[in-house]
């Protein structure tokens, strides 16, 4: 199944030896249910649209196949984490995810420090809840607009 998606990616690339350098994640969506379709044929909930910078070919992959074809699986971990936050299946933000989110330039300094101090707390005060909700919204908006390289020169 992964070979299938990778095979499709190679066939749509200019450089057949190092195809990943040409591809960027250009948008991400959570369909809520498995309503989408991966390039390998599997039905998918999380939809990653990737674009080839050289020939503008596009491909749609699910979270499993995109992890299997990129060298930067930590990037996809961060993205999936935030989509799960948005869907409400996750609630706390560990230091690990705060740091990786910062590494992707999805947080400014204030937001990063805020997440380090309150991201893991179960109970927040009114103002803190508002700030956390605003940060979540910002991060998720930025993620959905894409722009992530699938190769290591991030
Ligand atoms: Zn797939």
Task: Outline the fold blueprint.
Blueprint lengths: L1 H10 L11 E8 L5 E2 L5 E2 L1 E7 L5 E4 L1 H7 L3 H15 L7 H9 L5 H10 L7 H19 L3 E2 L5
Antiparallel strand pairs: 1-4, 1-6, 2-3, 4-5
Helix pairs in contact: 2-3, 3-6, 4-5
Write a concise synopsis of the structure shown:
With 154 residues, this protein is an alpha+beta fold. The chain is 45% helix and 16% strand.
Describe the protein:
With 154 residues, this protein is an alpha+beta fold. The chain has one domain (2-149). The chain contains 6 helices and 6 strands; from the N terminus they run αβββββαααααβ. The protein has helices at 2-11, 63-69, 73-87, 95-103, 109-118, 126-144; strands at 23-30, 36-37, 43-44, 46-52, 58-61, 148-149. The strands form 2 sheets. A 4-stranded antiparallel beta sheet has the order 5-4-1-6. Strands 2-3 form a two-stranded antiparallel sheet. Helix 2 runs antiparallel to helix 3 and helix 4 packs antiparallel against helix 5 (109-118). The longest helix is centred in the last third of the chain and has 19 residues, at 126-144. It is elongated, with a radius of gyration of 17 Å. The model has no long low-confidence stretch (mean pLDDT 88). Bound molecules: zinc ion (ZN).
* Gap from first CA to last CA: 27 Å
Shape: elongated
Kindly state the percentage of residues in helix. 40-55%
Name the strands of the widest sheet in spatial order. 5-4-1-6
Oligomer: single chain
H-E string: HEEEEEHHHHHE
What is the typical, i.e. mean, pLDDT?
88
Query: Can you tell me the residue ranges where pLDDT is under 50 for at least 5 consecutive residues?
Result: none
Count of extended strands: 6
Question: What number of structural domains do the residues give?
Answer: 1
Largest sheet: 4 strands, antiparallel
- How much of the sequence is in beta strands? 15-25%
Please count the helical segments: 6
Bound molecules: zinc ion
Radius of gyration: 17 Å
Supply the helix-strand structural class: alpha+beta
